[in-house]
Amino acid sequence: MLPVALFLLILADAYFLFTTLVDVFPLNNVREATRLERRTEVAINGPVLLVPAVLLAVAAAADLPVLAYIGAAVELLIVLSGLALWWLPYLVGVTVPWATAGTGESWAQLHARTYAKTIIVLPPIGDRPRPNVEHMILHTLILVAAICAFVAAGSL
Fold this sequence. Notes:
Layout: H1 2-21, H2 35-62, H3 65-92, H4 107-114, H5 133-155
Helix pairs in contact: 1-2, 1-5, 2-3, 3-5
């Protein structure tokens, strides 16, 4: 399970980097994000998404299962943060404080500018921002990677 978990952890990070930097409209709408927004997102979230894979690899090499569990827990926190960012505004109309950190926009404004024109399959709930397919894929990858990381940690 360790190779599968590592593959999924790295795949989630690679998918994030690709969809943040490469314009593949209508899956994403990178062209509407500023260069600074893209750089900031990559500089912060890229390394954070890589931490669980590094911890899992070091845990396996050093025979320290506790590091694998920490890596899996970090991945779980990442997915919970992503779900809070995208699903709380959609389902209950609550925006998390970090949603638009440093942008000077509300989540609804940022969503309208960068995500609203992308592929969205969820039905509207009033005028609330809806998660797009790009992020539904990312969140699924991260969740599956977290589950596999916990399973891999248990097998070390």
